[in-house]
Amino acid sequence: MEEDIESMSDNDVWDLVELPEGMKFIGCKWIIKTKKNSKGNIERYKARLVVKGLTQKEGIDYKETFSPVSSKDSFKTIITWVAYFDLELHQMDVKTVFLNGDIDKTIYIVQPENFVSGNQKYMVCKLKKSICGLK
Q1: How high is the pLDDT of residue 80?
Q2: Distance between CA atoms of 87 and 133, rounded to whole angstroms?
Q3: Are strands 42-51 and 28-36 parallel, antiparallel or unpaired?
Q4: What is the DSSP string of 43-102?
Q5: Is 95 within 8 Å of 7 (Cβ atoms)?
């Protein structure tokens, strides 16, 4: 969890602010996954902060959704080009993939559980960048 919070801090994902009158906030929760090695032994635990986007209403909180995904056909096309043109292909893993998109709407979320700022418990997080779970 600390790693995820540190990554969000480094990427300037939100500001702690007072919730303006008449505005609502969205909840958030931690999703924890167990990563195992090739032998099936637990290697580590991975935590990700996710916004409870189901509370968002279409037409009010968002207009459209977009989820960048790749298909098998796209992958096969890229591999074909690499082979045909004798190119090099490198793989990369992006840990903060959902933190890259700027937000054009004002969205407030509660402070993440166990990471509430001591003297600012009444404040909320005003998102500047997208995180998992938003629509």
Answers
A1: 95
A2: 36
A3: antiparallel
A4: EEEEEEEEE-GGG--BTTTBS--------HHHHHHHHHHHHHTT--------TTGGGS-B
A5: yes
pLDDT value for 67: 57
Q: What is the mean pLDDT of each run of 10 residues along the chain (135 residues)?
A: 80 87 87 88 86 64 57 88 93 63 82 77 85 70
Report long-range pairs for 97-103 (Cβ below 8 Å, ≥24 apart): 98/130, 98/131, 98/132, 99/7, 99/8, 99/11, 99/13, 99/129, 99/130, 99/131, 100/129, 100/130, 101/129, 101/130, 102/128, 102/129, 102/130, 103/127, 103/128, 103/129, 103/130, 103/134
Distance CA 95, CA 80 (A): 27
